[in-house]
Amino acid sequence: MTEKKRTTIVLFSGDYDKAMAAYIIANGAAAYDHEVTIFHTFWGLNALRKEEEIEVEKGFIEKMFAKMMPKGADKMGLSKMHFAGFGPKMIKNVMKKHNALTLPQLIEMAQEQDVKLVACTMTMDLLGLKEEELLDNIEYAGVAAYLADAEDGNVNLFI
Amino acid sequence: MTEKKRTTIVLFSGDYDKAMAAYIIANGAAAYDHEVTIFHTFWGLNALRKEEEIEVEKGFIEKMFAKMMPKGADKMGLSKMHFAGFGPKMIKNVMKKHNALTLPQLIEMAQEQDVKLVACTMTMDLLGLKEEELLDNIEYAGVAAYLADAEDGNVNLFI
Amino acid sequence: MTEKKRTTIVLFSGDYDKAMAAYIIANGAAAYDHEVTIFHTFWGLNALRKEEEIEVEKGFIEKMFAKMMPKGADKMGLSKMHFAGFGPKMIKNVMKKHNALTLPQLIEMAQEQDVKLVACTMTMDLLGLKEEELLDNIEYAGVAAYLADAEDGNVNLFI
Question: Which PANTHER family match (chains A, B, C) (predicted)?
């Protein structure tokens, strides 16, 4: 019995293009039969937010964070070439033209391929994000769980 | 027979300083007899662009991307301290003063040391970049080829 | 005798939140008995700067760099959500509310856990930083030393 190869990605970034890169690598690795974990921390948690408004109890600062941060993968901005919001739109047009998968589609594909999507509980706490606001069928864990996966990983990336 | 150690770098960033870091690590690893691959994706592809204008057929959006993105390693900006373009110039002056290698020189050295420079075909397609516009003697591949190199890698980085 | 697991982090970024992520992973890995190295290069060196003004001989450009770069971990900005400096303050308030460790506290904890903190001599040279300006009890090395640690690393990250 050969052990499965393992890929782990820390998704720290809240940029659409970086999250795309993370999910493309994750889906590729899953297709090559790796066990894959994406550990979403800090701004990377935004990729896991549900699009609809979810009613949860929040303090003032937590409400502000919730307002200021993009609500879900589709709302995230680019790391480069914003041009007053023109950049993301252009990229999405280009992606449509080339039939490239959008970030929400890449996330769905990852879930179908059993990529383990983890939300970092420590930063959820800091940013005031509740489980109800995040996608279904994800896991919740801290840095110890990440390290347990990564220390046997073949490909470990921080994005 | 001992197997060679292996280093792979995904160069996602289009920043001069991050690309420098990538190429310094790559050249160091090659000097220590690692097999080294730099997989250029998204904005990192700009490091591989030729400086001169190359005539290729492009659609409107592809032409805009081509205009907006830096043409070659020497034109890339800094990740920090832009100060209206003052930062990159200052860094380059400082580098000259310290006889540090410039990014184009680091890329040339990498090619001499047989570092495998790969351009990501999927993002070339998205950004409308053609092979004629990129440096000679590089390879073209997708995420599967990257993963094949990385899964046996000793040092795998995403920059 | 089992060999210790090993984690290495290149801290390239000068952002408070990214440095926090680096030190949280490093402290976690040290707690799980990994040998841990953080190699501070480029803007990541700012995390190691002493807060007080240190008198050292500098040229004009080096003085400008010294002025423009944050003096120590506590002065670093966020990678996202600056809002004219409002972001970092909000994050720090939230951290205090949740009793989360600040970056200076995380660095101190790393030193207590024998995480090896290394300053990249090549970029110290470029940015004009002197040993006297950096924290005590750190090491000074170049890319070769980093690679020697990383090539046997279980978890190698570039942040």
Answer: CONSERVED WITHIN P. AEROPHILUM, PEROXIREDOXIN FAMILY PROTEIN
The CATH number of the domain where C13 resides is what? 3.40.1260.10
Please indicate whether, in this complex, the C-beta atoms of B144 and A81 are within 8 angstroms of each other.
no
Partners of B128 on chain A (C-beta within 8 Å) are: 94
pLDDT digits (tens, 9 = 90+) for A3-35: 899 999 999 999 999 999 999 999 999 999 999
Measure A150 CA to nearest chain B CA, in Å: 12
ipTM confidence = 0.91
Structure tokens at C128: 């004009």
Which chains have at least 3 CB atom pairs separated by less than 8 Å from chain B? A, C
* Residue span of the structural domain in which A40 resides: 6-158
Chains touching chain C through at least 3 C-beta pairs below 8 angstroms are A, B
Q: For chain C, what is the domain count?
A: 1
CB distance A147–C155 less than 8 Å? yes
User: Is B93 a member of any domain?
Assistant: yes
Q: How does pLDDT run across B23-42, given as a tens digit for each residue?
A: 999 999 999 999 999 999 99
Nearest to B110 by CA among B137, B134, B128: B137
Please indicate, yes or no, if residue C1 is contained in any of the structural domains. no
